[in-house]
Sequence to fold (385 residues):
Amino acid sequence: MNIYLYLKNFPPSGDKVRLPQGTIKAVHGLASGLVKCGAKVKVLCETDPSQKVSYQTEAGYEIIAFGSSNRNPRKFKISSELQDYIRDNLDETSLVILNGIFHAGVYSLSRVLHKYKVPYIIAPHDPYSPAIFRKNFQLKWPYWFLFERKMLRQAKAIQVLDSRHEEFIRKLGVNTSVLAIPNGFSPKDVYLESSLHWQHDSNLSKAKLFFLGRLDSYNKGLDLLIDAFAQLDSRENAYLTIQGPDWGDKQSLQTQVEKLNLGKNISFLDPNFAQSPSLLIQNYDVFCIPSRFEGFSLAALEAMLAGRVLLVSSIAGIAPYVEASDCGVVVTPEVSAIKLGIMKLFQRRSEWKEMGLAGRRYALENLQWDKIASVALKQYQQLFL
Fold:
């Protein structure tokens, strides 16, 4: 069985560059792991016609970048070269994993695959929770009924990042098989335990909270985090840093901070793609990801590997691992719950190093891409029995 992973914006140069975006990292990790398990894997993507290329990565999978004049995920158009490639090279024994949610290009490619009877899996990377429909509901609900639901129903399977996310799919009237496959890490991205460091005299210094990711206030719950921080009695003994690319909400978040008179307690940093997330996270004490909806959170996994304590949203696929290892708190995406979660962590401040190391060991044991891919490959093979 040949396995193909489609991600429209996957970098044609693959593992030659740092992979900054979560979905790109996830596709690279799964492809690399599947190769180590003996599978033949190709990543299909679209790029500027002048950059189209076929490239064999050091990880062992091949990237095929097809020329396309359309890079807009909202347009129902995919590369004609990609369509021809599917017609000429794929068949009923192939398997294509389509990565994306509410993505017109993914829907269009699913139609091509359906036409040529090529089995496909949808990997949305976010849960179909009620929260994801609330923002831009006037667009998402019509899109769901006209396109997304049909695509999911005709898929061979839906690949979620947490088995709990199946419930949302069933409530929306989709009975397609569901595969629960979490995100993972590569051993080469893990730093030695001896290189990790924690604050000395932690009871005397300010607790440093950190968010790392795109500045999407609604999705990531950053407005909730700031409001919760403002209500802390001990906020003068804490500092929150928010870092990542601006997805349009940075100004409104800064305005929120100013209105709450938190300018001395909260700061914003631009993205730093020159340094690995694990190294960035090591400069802080508590990693926060209070998302309203979240597939998994690779940044949270990197925080676990860096030996940090975490505050994570209950919807995130990594939440069960945080609970199981006791390396942090799991909260509902509500101001009162986030505030309470931070307070609980502060009460255990003397345990932070021990908690962080427990989370790191748990992640090392359970979330390596090779192990995840081995389970995934068996599930893929079962689909064809």
